[in-house]
Structure formats: C-alpha cells, structure tokens
Amino acid sequence: MTDLTAKIPDSLYQQVAALAAKEQISIDQLVAIALSAQVSAWMTKEYLNEKAKQGSWEAFQQVLAKVPNREPDEYDRL
User: Fold this and answer.
1) What are the backbone dihedrals phi and psi of residue 11, each rounded to the nearest 5 degrees, phi first?
2) Which of 13, 24, 30, 63 could cross-link with 20 by S-S, CB 3.0 to 4.6 Å?
C-alpha cells in the first residue's frame, strides 16, 4: 500500500468522517472506495470516447434500418 497525503477543506473532511462513522468503516477505507469509484468512472468515460471514435454513424444507421418498425410486445411497453 502507498500512503497519500491530500489537503481538503475542513467541511469535506467532516462529511467524510461522518459518512465513515455511519457506514462503520475507517476514513481510509471510505476514501479508497470513493477514489476507486471516481477513477473507474473517468476510465470508463475515456474508454467509451475511444470506442465512439472507432464507430460510424452511417454504419449504425444501416444496421438500424434492418430492424423492423413495429410496436413493442406487451411485456416491453412502459
């Protein structure tokens, strides 16, 4: 494990401490979970942007044109 020191506003620290206490986990655990979730979201966004660059709107439209235009089945209706 690596230690990380970061300066955060006192109000954010108080929120983190309160949430950690409520969840009955350490502040270190809470920060690791939150940081992991945010990094994962950023990496997912980057991955999807790269995949989108490889796509083609025209090719998507061609595939979509093959789908029959009909009402959804009863179990698929909102």
Assistant:
1) -65, -40
2) 30
